Amino acid sequence: MPARLGSIGRSDRGAATAEVAVVLPAVVALLGLLLAGATGAVTQLQLEKAAQAAVRQLGRGEPEGQAAATARRIAGEGAGLAAATSGGWVSVRVTAQVPGPWGPWSGWTLAAEATAPAEQPGTGAGPDPGTGSGHGG
């Protein structure tokens, strides 16, 4: 006697649902980690830009408060700036917290550093104003 069509595969009923229920949390966790990594990469790029801008300002002799404001504007309000001058060089370290995929229970601190020579007063890098731009005319 042939088997009834409705009874074939009856023991596998709901297997796909169970497999999805087991795999779905792992997929969600992996997605959270990937997004956290992307957030960290973007934050690191912003910190690099902020450190470069701040060290240029301090190298030109601008106040540290102004350089810190520039760093916060580029890297975010939570960014911190530490600056030092030694032997004619200016060094800057900008740090910021990166939020993790699970809120306050995760995350890490990233930092970027930049160093530039401090300009001496009256030795700007641009052309002498009395000599023109160097173009014929």
UniProtKB/TrEMBL annotation:
Keywords on record: Membrane, Transmembrane, Transmembrane helix
Claim: Transmembrane is one of the keywords in the record: yes
Cited InterPro entries: Rv3655c/TadE
Compositional bias (Gly residues): 123-137
Region described as Disordered: spans on this chain: 115-137
Transmembrane segments: 20-42
Recorded superkingdom: Bacteria
NCBIfam families found in the cross-reference section: TadE_Rv3655c
Protein name, as recorded: TadE family protein
Record lineage: Bacteria, Bacillati, Actinomycetota, Actinomycetes, Micrococcales
